[in-house]
Automatic annotation (TrEMBL):
This is Inner membrane-spanning protein YciB. It comes from Rhizobium esperanzae. The gene is yciB. Pfam families: IspA. Plays a role in cell envelope biogenesis, maintenance of cell envelope integrity and membrane homeostasis. It is a multi-pass membrane protein. Belongs to the YciB family.
């Protein structure tokens, strides 16, 4: 099974940019809608009542949408993006546990576990002298060693902050607030953070053509 960078622009990615976006955002939007209209869905599709309350219905549909998006990504785009692939595995495992045990804690802790996993992997890689972020972003741009080190530290800390934010929200607010934060809070925060890293990327970017002439 082939996995590639989330931002490595393969030919298929360039030809289907809207499809790539839909595959990444679609499962989250389904999760939000299903939680918001859980009772309405159960009334129209009684079989869904076997899953439990609205959040469990949303979790079941989220799992199905996630698996579907990964299958379509593999067939149409030709690869599985690393982060959605890892996140999808955790979604299926913890979503299944939530529904089976009728315990919302498992699905609520999924973002905490995924973000902690990414954060620890990035920072831990630096401890062994390796910038794992370079394997994800190197097809999009080239940085010098110092640039990769700084960017890896920032992303590692950012993932850990997202993990803490998820814990704070799900433990202190309602289910609806947590779902809204997961869909409408995490994504904008990530986009803003990504854009904020562009000055660092530009400062440490390498020009292959120029380097070759030297």
């Amino acid at each position: 099974m082939t996995t590639e960078s989330d931002i490595t622009p393969s030919a298929a990615d360039r030809n289907h940019p809207l499809l790539k976006l839909a595959l990444e955002l679609g499962p989250l939007l389904i999760f939000f809608f299903a939680n918001l209209r859980g009772q309405w869905l159960v009334e129209r599709f009684p079989a869904l009542s076997e899953l439990g309350g609205p959040l469990f219905v949303a979790t079941g549909l989220f799992m199905a949408a996630t698996v579907f998006s990964l299958v379509v990504s593999k067939i149409v785009l030709g690869h599985l993006p690393i982060m959605p692939f890892v996140s999808g595995i955790v979604v299926v495992i913890f979503g299944s546990l939530s529904i089976w045990l009728q315990n919302e804690t498992f699905i609520k802790m999924k973002p905490t576990i995924v973000n902690t996993l990414f954060g620890v992997a990035l920072l831990g890689g630096l401890a062994f002298g390796r910038s794992l972020l370079g394997y994800v972003f190197n097809a999009a741009f080239q940085l010098d060693a110092e640039g990769w080190r700084k960017l890896t530290i920032r992303w590692g800390i950012f993932f850990l902050i997202l993990a803490v934010l998820n814990e704070v929200v799900w433990r202190n607010f309602s289910d609806d607030t947590w779902v809204a934060f997961k869909v409408w809070g995490t994504m904008p925060i990530t986009i803003i953070f990504t854009l904020a890293q562009m000055p660092l990327v530009l400062k440490h970017s390498l020009n292959p053509e120029t380097d070759g002439e030297k």
